[in-house]
Amino acid sequence: MVRPHPERRPRSARLLAGLAVGAVLLAGCGAPDAPTPRFSGDFTEFPLSAGAQLIAPPEEPPPATETSACAAHASLRPGTPSLGGTLGDIRARGTVVVAVDQNTNLFSFRDPTTGALTGFGVDLAREVARDLLGDPTKVEFRPLGTDDGAEMLAHRDADMVVRPAALPCEAPQGLAFSTVYLEASRRLVVRHGSGISEPADLARRRVCTHHDPASVSALSRIAPKATILAVPDWDDCLMALQQRQVDAIAGAAVLAGLVAQDPNLEIVGPETDSAEYAIGVAPGNDDLVRFVNGTLERLRTDGTWTVLYDRWLSSLGPAPGPPVPQYQD
């Protein structure tokens, strides 16, 4: 009896099966997979922002003083606008060119919805344009870096500088100033429940402030035992506090914009000495200085200053009234 031959698979099927087995063998003999990279650290320590500087407290802190020794800042008295000079150049151009910091919330920042520059300082610049050119929108804003803007003024890249940096006791070279348009008490921003309520609580803690001389000097004076983190941008202070790299932020008018960005923060501390803010102009442009001071005088007397304060800085407290101008002539 002849047994039937078992059914054979087609040659093509047998060939495909062989190729599959070969592929598996080749894969097994190939180069091994790259090892999973190893990471060191647990990512609990964030790097400090670019340009940040840590300033250790002195071994023997100087005697504490309650107020700043700065003399009142005086400027030129408002005068009759000239037809030529800097004012004539601006009128011929048709716009006022103003250098501003563009990321300080509530002072000069871009509205996240419209992208337009807005804030207390921006509104001041627009009021100058209103008086000089008859239209508050005729302002060309140019970004200001981390310096004081003196180089931009020297190269005629801007007519004015409006920045949220307090005036130092000694006016920096390369800048002339308007009368003081804002005076605010230096206080602290901390996290809710931090246990910090006054400068005395900052001993052996790390505190952030702007790297401008006036801010660093004031913090060294009111908290001589604190370690200072000096940064080129106030938003760097906000990030450092949120990442728990510092225990507090020390400042003045800019604190309103910081707490507005984070509901977990609050302004605390008694009012220490005051920070003063003025508009910067290139030296020698006396006609522009006098004109700007005329606009600031109008804002003080017609109520516009209080309107702007209530719009942008009310979290600092009720409007204290505009600072009384000091004139040198």
From TrEMBL:
The Solute-binding protein family 3/N-terminal domain sits at: 95-316
Family matches, as CDD domains: PBP2_GluB
UniProt keywords, alphabetically: Signal, Transport
A Pfam family this chain is assigned to? SBP_bac_3
Similarity comment text for this entry: Belongs to the bacterial solute-binding protein 3 family.
Q: Name one GO biological process term.
A: amino acid transport
Q: Which residues form the signal peptide?
A: 1-27
Asked if the Swiss-Prot or TrEMBL record annotates the protein with the keyword Signal, the reply is yes
Q: Which organism is it from?
A: Rhodococcus wratislaviensis NBRC 100605
List the transmembrane segments.
none
**Any GO CC annotation of this UniProt entry:** outer membrane-bounded periplasmic space
* InterPro entries registered for this protein in UniProt: Bact_solute-bind_prot3 (IPR051455), Solute-binding_3/MltF_N (IPR001638)
In Swiss-Prot or TrEMBL terms, this protein is called Putative ABC transporter substrate-binding protein
